[in-house]
Amino acid sequence: MRCSTYKQQANLQNISILNAEKHFLTHLTKIATSFPKLRIVLEHATTSEAVDAVLSLPENVACSITAHHLELTIDAVPGQPFHFCKPIAKEPKDRDALRKAVLSGNPKFFLGSDSAPHPVNAKTARVEEFGEPVGCAAGVYTSSILVPLVATLLESFGGLDILQGFVSDNGRKFYGVPAKEGESVTLKRVEKGGGKVPGLIRGDGAEVVPFWAGKELGWEIV
């Protein structure tokens, strides 16, 4: 599909960065029912409607949720390029639905990092998509702190006990990939003031601002 045609159709259907996920859910349902033996993952869900859709569909459909979407809402995005990602964060009710889905322990939901280490200049410069300026590169960088970040976030809303299931077990079970013998990650609690996320990470000639820069993590990898 040509870019101009895509934009025209999106305009006619009132599709935008804020509601594109909801529009896609009808297609997800059609695919899942047409191919009941196909494993399908709705990657990086951001809406309450997506959670409801995944729950309503058979066991061949699962859903990944990012760490940053368990924290961000749309109010945290304007004026903060390092919070801009696609899919974009949505309303508080949507974040609450994601948290509730994770807290349920339902194996359909598991972690998907969607970590994007865009250099600072790419996050603060104007770029184009479909021939139009969109502000900056889309993506949030979490991989350097991912598991401690997830543990800290889960603990903040009462879900620390489902950490292993959300981060590891649920996804492995869905994909049928068993853990390798002897491979594990151990976390330990960090004393207050000792788990500060760096404001800037330098390497390979680039500078990257991680998610939660300057904030405190409650856990670290041993």
Distance linking N and C termini? 49 Å
Q: How many alpha or pi helices?
A: 7
**CATH fourth-tier homologous superfamily of the domain at 25-176:** Metal-dependent hydrolases
CATH topology of the domain at 25-176: TIM Barrel
CATH architecture of the domain at 25-176: Alpha-Beta Barrel
Q: What is the makeup of the main sheet?
A: 3 strands, parallel
User: What structural class do the secondary elements suggest?
Assistant: alpha/beta
Mean pLDDT: 92
Strand content: 5-15%
List its traits.
single chain, 7 helices, 222 residues, alpha/beta, 3-stranded parallel β-sheet, 9 strands, two-stranded antiparallel ribbon, TIM Barrel
Description:
The structure is a single chain. With 222 residues, the protein is α/β, with parallel strands linked by helices. It has a domain at 25-176: TIM Barrel (Alpha-Beta Barrel), CATH 3.20.20. 34% of the residues lie in helices and 12% in strands. The chain is built from seven helices and nine strands; from the N terminus they run ααβαβαβαββααββββ. The chain has helices at 3-12, 20-34, 48-56, 92-103, 120-124, 146-156, 163-175, and strands spanning 40-42, 61-65, 109-111, 128-129, 132-133, 187-189, 201-203, 206-208, 219-221. The longest helix has 15 residues, at 20-34. 31% of the residues are buried. The model has no long low-confidence stretch (mean pLDDT 92).
